[in-house]
Automatic annotation (TrEMBL):
<protein>
    <recommendedName>
        <fullName>EfeO-type cupredoxin-like domain-containing protein</fullName>
    </recommendedName>
</protein>
<dbReference type="InterPro" id="IPR008972">
    <property type="entry name" value="Cupredoxin"/>
</dbReference>
<feature type="region of interest" description="Disordered">
    <location>
        <begin position="22"/>
        <end position="54"/>
    </location>
</feature>
<keyword id="KW-0732">Signal</keyword>
<feature type="signal peptide">
    <location>
        <begin position="1"/>
        <end position="23"/>
    </location>
</feature>
<feature type="compositionally biased region" description="Polar residues">
    <location>
        <begin position="22"/>
        <end position="40"/>
    </location>
</feature>
Length: 121
């Protein structure tokens, strides 16, 4: 769904001066100690488990674990973190929340809005 993609581009451009909502894959780090893990489930493009918003402190380690009923691509805007999701298999993006703001987390194929990540110090 490109509706959110537009927001993504603006957010990324404003904060990082880089382009794109294309989503690179792969670079997640394994969650370690001190990581806040938040789990979500998506069924038919709708969130069926997990909070509407995740609020964290600047510098906190965050892991977003998403299980989708369809193959999809998980994307965290602003941080431009992505993970490929296989049907029914949890996928995780993990990162340090070092950019303040509110960022959409979505699935690119279904267009599902997973959550909003709110980072403030
Ligand atoms: Cu996106």
């Amino acid at each position: 769904m490109r509706r959110i993609g537009g927001i993504c581009g603006i957010t990324v451009a404003a904060l990082l001066a880089v382009t794109g909502c294309s989503g690179s894959s792969g670079t997640e780090q394994p969650p370690g100690t001190g990581t806040r893990t938040v789990k979500f489930s998506i069924t038919e493009g709708k969130r069926t488990a997990g909070p509407e918003e995740v609020a964290v402190r600047t510098g906190e380690n965050v892991a977003l674990e998403v299980t989708s009923d369809q193959a999809d691509e998980l994307h965290v805007h602003g941080y431009d973190k992505a993970a490929q999701l296989a049907p029914g298999v949890p996928g995780t993006v993990a990162f340090t929340a070092n950019i303040d703001g509110i960022f959409e987390v979505e699935l690119h194929k279904s267009g599902a809005a997973v959550t909003k990540l709110r980072v403030s110090g």
